[in-house]
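Hypothesis: this fold can be encoded by more than one sequence.
Test: take the structure tokens below, design a sequence, compare later.
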């Protein structure tokens, strides 16, 4: 619970027009670092038998976006 409260404090200081580096990569048509973040978490989840459905969904969504770069 303290962790969540702490993140609310941090998020309250973020500029509303700010963009994460991954979103900046997507907007610029660059390959993201999704493999080292969500990909690694998925790998660790499998290793420890912990389901990570949100990370799997986001991983595949971003990979789908990246796969369309070649079509442009």
């Amino acid at each position: 619970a303290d962790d969540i409260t702490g993140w609310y404090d941090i998020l309250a200081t973020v500029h509303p027009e700010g963009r994460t580096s991954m979103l900046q990569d997507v907007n610029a048509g660059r390959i993201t670092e999704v493999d080292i973040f969500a990909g690694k978490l998925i790998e660790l989840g499998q290793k420890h038998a912990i389901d990570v459905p949100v990370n799997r969904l986001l991983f595949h969504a971003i990979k789908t976006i990246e796969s369309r770069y070649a079509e442009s």
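The helical segments are 2-11, 21-28, 34-47, 53-67. The longest helix spans residues 53-67.
Hypothesis status: open.
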